[in-house]
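TA notes, week 10

Several of you asked for a full example with nothing omitted. So below is the full record: structure tokens for the whole chain, then the designed sequence directly under it. When grading your own attempts, check the secondary structure regions first.
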């Protein structure tokens, strides 16, 4: 079985060494770049399954690397950075990053995020039914089951759940969700989105106050977990 390839673009040698040890111990093939231009070259020549991209690079910013990658690279990009401000995170996600982790990060969480990204790469979005633990979504019939019961969802709730679920494991910003579900003119209506997320949680979660599927990323958006 072929190993999944992870490209690490980061100019900090200790971080590169740590990531190489951790990733190889979990059976990933690791490619390393110490600056943005080298990272772009390796991404084009190796087409990795996941890219770990630092925001602070010596020759160009991670945001600039992301801008160039998004034109052709279609797989997952996870941002790594000590810059944990909401504006940096939102900007990166809106430019095409699929996830982010702030340094210092827990290696177990990083591995889980990478595996989730690879599952998302491989998933067939045309599949008629998706199953997530106690939830099942039938795209053709537009029906959602929780355990053995059919949930009564409005059209908007269903569309919101499907968009979140097909991006399982990916952080979606408020603006991305509002644009997708309600259109361009609604991108500032974050309170409107919170109301729908709240009602959706009451229907799909066993305990809406401690959700296992619809996770809040404070100040950024939401993530759907299988």
């Amino acid at each position: 079985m072929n190993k999944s390839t992870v490209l690490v673009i980061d100019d900090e040698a200790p971080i590169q060494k740590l990531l190489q040890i951790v990733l190889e111990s979990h059976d990933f093939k690791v490619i390393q770049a110490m600056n943005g231009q080298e990272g772009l070259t390796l991404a084009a020549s190796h087409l990795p399954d996941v890219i770990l991209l630092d925001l602070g690079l010596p020759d160009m910013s991670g945001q600039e690397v992301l801008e160039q990658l998004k034109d052709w690279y279609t797989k997952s990009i996870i941002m790594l950075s000590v810059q944990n401000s909401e504006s940096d995170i939102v900007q990166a996600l809106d430019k095409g990053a699929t996830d982010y982790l702030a340094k210092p990060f827990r290696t177990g969480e990083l591995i889980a995020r990478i595996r989730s990204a690879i599952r998302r790469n491989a998933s067939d979005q045309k599949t008629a039914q998706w199953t997530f633990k106690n939830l099942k979504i039938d795209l053709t019939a537009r029906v959602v089951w929780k355990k053995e019961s059919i949930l009564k969802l409005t059209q908007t709730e269903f569309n919101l759940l499907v968009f979140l679920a097909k991006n399982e494991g990916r952080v979606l910003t408020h603006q991305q969700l509002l644009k997708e579900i309600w259109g361009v003119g609604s991108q500032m209506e974050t309170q409107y989105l919170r109301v729908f997320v709240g009602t959706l949680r009451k229907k799909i979660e066993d305990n809406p106050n401690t959700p296992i599927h619809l996770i809040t990323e404070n100040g950024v958006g939401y993530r759907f977990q299988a």
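The chain has a mean pLDDT of 88. Use that as a sanity check on your answer.
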